[in-house]
Amino acid sequence: MEIHPFGLAQLFLFALWVNGLMTIGLAGAQQGIVCNESLMLQKLPVCGKSFEEMMRKVDSRKWCNLTEFILYYNNFTLCTEHEAATAKCFWPNPLAEGYITGIHRQFFSNCSAEKIHWEDPPDKILITLILIPVLLTMAMIGLVVWCSKRSDILV
User: Fold this and answer.
1) Which of 69, 72, 97, 123 is 20 to 30 A from 141, comparing alpha carbons?
2) 20 in Cβ contact with 37 (< 8 Å)
3) Are the CB atoms for 37 and 84 separated by under 8 Å?
4) What is the pLDDT of residue 118?
5) Element (H, E) at 22
6) How far apart are CA 81 and CA 43, in angstroms?
7) How far is Cα 64 from Cα 112, in angstroms, rounded to an integer?
8) C-alpha neighbours within 13 Å on the C-beta side of residue 120
């Protein structure tokens, strides 16, 4: 297969031209979008009030158990996404994140992650867990060597 330098040059120039058109198209599409931050900040509290009303149905002692309110939190998230999109803002954005963080402080400030303290097993168990694979590996190697020396069992 012959490589034609002129054909490669044409292909390269065509790829650059297509890339330029795509870049201009994408940049032009994004120039018309202007985030109305004040509108978004006016609408986000509607989501917060709705979430607050739904969280009243959940016992406050269960606020740290996500399974108790996951649907409410999902609705809150979808609402904030919708309101950001209505204001022609990207989501998440710093303003929406700040509002969501405020909601987290209001409802989940007492929820701290309980860290599990890992400990090594007792020495007897640890030695056993280490020696079993080592001994099995040595046994398998010995079996392979023993079988390879016995030509009478090879077919």
Assistant:
1) 123
2) no
3) no
4) 83
5) helix 5-31
6) 11
7) 8
8) 8
